[in-house]
Amino acid sequence: MVSTPDRSGGRGGALTASPVDPVVLVAHGSRDPRAAAATRALARAVEVADPAVTVHPAYLDHTAPRPADVLHALAAAGHTGATLVPLLLTAAYHGRVDIPAAVADAYADGLRIPVRVSTVLGPAGGIVDPGLLGGLARRLAAAGAGFDAVVLAAAGTRDAAARATVDLAAAAFGAALGLPCVAAYASAAPPAVGTAVARLRARGARRVGVAAYFLAPGRLYAEAAAAARSAGAVGVAEPLEGAPEIARLVLDRVELAGKSPVSLLAA
How far apart are CA 90 and CA 47, in angstroms? Predict the structure, then answer.
């Protein structure tokens, strides 16, 4: 069962300890309620993939509960550790700064259990996980067939290193599909999604599909999808959300984090 802390009587109270360290999925958060629903769907999918694991959503902004609240509730319930998985596809500002800061704030507020922080779900160490490619392929197949070129539409970031990992994912996805695939962005960096679709069509592509490099719906995804359709894309995939390949990817990140030293330790 996907769990969240009961905040009505302070931290904790509703959670019970299990022999396996719980997993905390940390999403950015959004005013769009569909985003939190997508995070909960992924949490359920992870628990289906491994029923021994309990999964707890948390959010950096806009939506409760915050990571520190979940971690304190887990400690109060008797858990002796936790693994935090950033629901991010690039290691940009949120991954490099906000996630560590959230855990540090929990320790500053008295947390006394060790917390491991996994890598993001996007490419890590120059490797694009097959689970990520499988999730993208699943969603694109549901949007149509017979594509002759693909745009990998992402939210966008000003971080050049983060954009390089999106390019890496686009190249790997194109290789897996046997099709040209280019990265494009809804904000912050060129090329825009509509521009990328138009360029592929100008080069002769007639059935451009758009894969969504998004974990959840929201304003930027909606803008990217609308721009793609206006530019002539014949199919636009839905966000990854609770795709079983992404659930397995989360578990793989948890396993990898378990082989590493604890990222942050209670003092």
Answer: 24
Shared domain check, 147 and 62? no
User: How high does pLDDT run on average in the chain?
Assistant: 89
Asked if residue 265 is part of any domain, the answer here is: no
What does the pLDDT read at residue 262? 56
130 has pLDDT over 70: yes
Q: Is residue 187 part of a domain?
A: yes
For residue 8, being part of any structural domain is answered with: no
Q: How many domains does the chain have?
A: 2
**Is residue 212 within 8 Å of 170, Cβ to Cβ?**
no
The CA distance from 82 to 64, in Å, is: 19
Tokens (6 digits) for 264: 């942050």
Q: What is the percent of the chain where pLDDT is above 70?
A: 88
Both 82 and 155 in a single domain?
no
Three-class SS state of 57: strand
Burial class (CB in 10 A: 0-12, 13-18, 19+), 1: exposed
Give the span between the Cα atoms of 35 and 28, in whole angstroms: 9
On whether both 38 and 91 belong to a single domain, the answer is yes
d(CA 208, CA 140): 11
**Euclidean distance between CA atoms 267 and 265, whole angstroms:** 6
CB atoms within 10 A of CB 49: 17
Q: What residues contact residue 223 under an 8 Å CB cut-off, 6+ apart?
A: 186, 187
CB atoms inside a 10 Å sphere around CB 56: 24
Residue 124: what are its φ and ψ, rounded to 5°? -135, 130
Residue 79 lies in a domain: yes
* Structural domain range at position 78: 23-122+244-258
**CATH code at position 222:** 3.40.50.1400
